[in-house]
Request: fold
Amino acid sequence: MPAPAHFLRSHVRLPGRTIGLAVLAAAICAAPVLAVAWIALSGETGDYLQHLAGTRLPTYLATSAIVALIAAGGAGLIGTGLGWLIARTEFVGRRTLAWVLILPLAVPAYVAAYAWLDLSHAGGPLQAMTGGLFPTIRGSWGAGLMFALVLYPYVFLLARDTFAGQSADAYHAARTLGAGPLTAFWRTSLPMARPAIAAGLALVVMESLADYGTVSHLGAPTLSIGLIRAWSGAGSLVDAARLSLVLVVIAIFVFGLERAQRRRARSVNAAGRHKPAPRLQLGAGHGLLALLACLTPLALGMVVPLGRLVWLALHTDTAPGLAAASLHSLTLALITAVIAAALGLATAYALRSRTAIATLAARAAGLGYAVPGAVAAVGVIALLSGTQALLDPAWRALTGEVFPILLTATGGALVFAYLSRFAAAAISPAETALARVTPSLDGAARTLGASRGRRVRTVHWPLIAAGVTSAGLLVFVEVLKELPATMILRPFNYDTLAIIAHNFASDERLGEAALPSLLIPLVALLPMIFVARYLSRQAR
Amino acid sequence: MTDAPTVLSIRGAERRYRADHAALAGADLDLHAGRITALLGPSGSGKSTLLRAIAGLERLEAGSICLGDTIWNDAATHVAPEARRVGMVFQDYALFPHMTALANVAFGLTGPGKTARALAQLEAAELGHKAKAYPHELSGGEQQRVALARALAPQPAVVLLDEPFSGLDRRLRGELRERTVDTLRAAGTTALIVTHDAEEAMAVADELALMDGGRIIQTGPPDEVWMSPVSATAAKLLGDVEIIEARVTSGQAETPFGPVDAHGFEDGQPVAVLIRPRAFTLSLDAEGACTITRRRSAGPHLTHRFASDAGEWTAQTPAPSPIREGDRVNVELDPAYVRVVATSA
Reply:
């Protein structure tokens, strides 16, 4: 009788329950995308889309490509450069910068865009200071720049950890073969880090394509703009779903490229012993340059825009409804974060069982991460209105009334959409954290007489708490920043901080937009500091 | 073999990971009170699986494990690891990284005064001054000692050590080995140490158990096992050996170096003649049947590789030796280091 393979792996096993939860996570994440695909492929062709294909669609596609390329190029350059500086050199402030450089993730790109456009528009302070020389930050390149400035931490994090973990041997071998330091870096260290950089870039590209607030404010009509217009302007679910499908196809393509890179990475990392290179000690002059290189993106992505918003907020009366919106934002973010962290942890435990169904569920859940918020929202609407249509006849027969609009008009739909997009983000941190609980730790605790409850309480939880918390906080920050899905799904008159900031900003009332815009990064900053420090502690 | 009472007995233990590969294929083993047994086998022979099965970390598909009269494993029973009285030192030590050395040692203790008892255990390991240190602040040797102290603290009926010295460098390994044996003796514990290093096994063991293919193939005191291996496999586990296949004729097995005593075997029975390298005695002889093809110094002795028409073998000879590469030699066998075993089995 062959024994199940999972006996080998872990000894706190709750296979039934955790696999069930993993499947639930997968269903939440994958169902909206599948619904979008179903609607897109089965619905009737509307005039709107035909009209669109002939007129705007090429523009949407071209703009999306330009924005994504500039975002990827900028974030790649900043993230890789800073990642290498932090991982391989030593200069004053390096240890602090190692985590501070991650913080711009707390700033939504649209918030940076509000501030920068306000600073640089014709007749604005920057043009006044430079005699009209400073370019106005808008359009595709402006949006790409904003994304680069706030999303570079994705590349930075992965590049930093890869550079730090790289064995020095390949680099030294290149040096003994006659390559100078720069050539050796270019030909060994950088190619070895390429899969990590590609993974970071894939995230940057996806976030740029998923964005709505930035591109609408700076006038860069990407696919998301077309999608929101199809839904809120033309009110066509089928057309919105079709545009969504285009975005999903692009996402699958981007992540496919990234995966192709990673497949080769295995052979790179598996080779040889692990002997990290000694850090390059930078002298005073070079150290100062390194410090400047680190502080510039921080200043441009965080300090300057937030400073401008503070100034604006101080010079404008506070708009009404801010307290309610803050409460809504916090509630949604908190609920989603807790559920996502729980689902992520359950999936990670299920993955430890090494069963095919758990692996499949984790993969399917991961799909959600590739889906822009607007697409998830369209999918949730499709699902819920489908369910409504199914239940309606039965309800009518029972009560004689129309089925109450319970499903689509509540915060529940929003949480569903957020989860489908962000729950996947909680899986891999939980997995990493759980990897610290090796089977032999479990075995040691058992042979020392610890019951399951005691093992979970005294061994597992202390080791995974920080990882699981930081997964939850990451989701919390993402939900706080989320705009397009909220716009599509929010109940009538239910505002969040992102919504009122966007509404004021699109009415050109930037003074009133300043405070809600500012509150998002301010609330996000504390959890982000926790996450950043956790991720940086892991690296050493 | 021994008059110490049997503490733990394993009968017919079976465990397979895949349908076609048995990690344990009917292993039998007894552990005797207060004695250290070394379990020696090549990697993949099932020794770690057996250890984990004793600890209850693996389930058996067949066979039994009993502690005295208590059944730990049989067809109907699987006592959970936490309910057995087993101390285990893992290969990677498995120290809890978020707990101090003291908290690690105290983990398995209950009741009042557990901290004091844990501290006493640490002090016995001469690590009292490291009580507040976290595992990553300890050296490899110190980590191993904490792991051993943690396993011994609850005064288990049996202590299991899984390759406890494999992560350490050679010099430290010898020192720590002595220390571990002393500690186990002082505690009067019944212990089972898994290793794939023959020298180490013989150095620590009161009793040696050889494992291959999921079975225990021989047990006994180390010197006895070394001198009288029951099979070619057993002989190879304990060190270099030359194996010559032969058939018995009138109580003797013929080898290129003359006949070897094989009484007790039937005429015509196929046997293997097991020759330890030190059994070969080489003497310079211009008319000798063998030629030295290679000569290597190995510190206190030399290895001489020599060849004749019948084959090529390696001898271990005391240093210094006048015999050089290309010399012709005569070869004789010292019967003390030669054994004949049946091969049909």
About this structure: The interface with chain A takes residues 15-19, 52, 55-59, 61, 80-84, 86-88, 90-92, 94-98, 107-108, 110, 150-151, 154 of chain B (CB under 8 Å). The first helix of chain B runs from residue 47 to 55. DSSP finds eight helices and 20 strands in chain B. The radius of gyration of chain B is 24 Å.
